[in-house]
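Example record used in the benchmark description.
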Amino acid sequence: MPVASALGGIYLDGDQLVTASLTPLMHHEMVMSHENSDNLANSMMLAAPAARILPLWLSRYRNYNSSQWGAHSTYVPWELAQQYPHLIKVVDNLFVNPDLTDITQVYYGQFDISCNFGLHLYTRFLRKPLPLLAASKWKSSLGRMWRKILFGTPDIVCPEKSLF
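Model output (structure tokens):
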């Protein structure tokens, strides 16, 4: 049995944010969310120790093709979730909402993430690095979130004064 399935835990991509307590999901053996209607997002996953779906998923990597990583990483878990719904809880798209097609709303506009458990920022598609302090002044959904994380309030604050 793979080490990961023996230990369990929470996996997050480097550009995945947790936006709400995960406690309501902790009683499930494995939790993932949709990214699109025909796949699951692998940017945020919760697994209990020895989650039974993980060895099934790992076995599908025997025919891994690195040029089609998304097939193994996102479509296979959705197929498994349909075959074994008692082994994996799918929470709609509440880890990845909005998906890549609408992520600009988070960066530059307003997108309601209040029902989300997470938010995938898809930073690999950004043309420039994201400066956190500058982003904290944005009047967008992401700006509000950064202010809440960095300063404890979604309101625009003077970062220099909050350091004292």
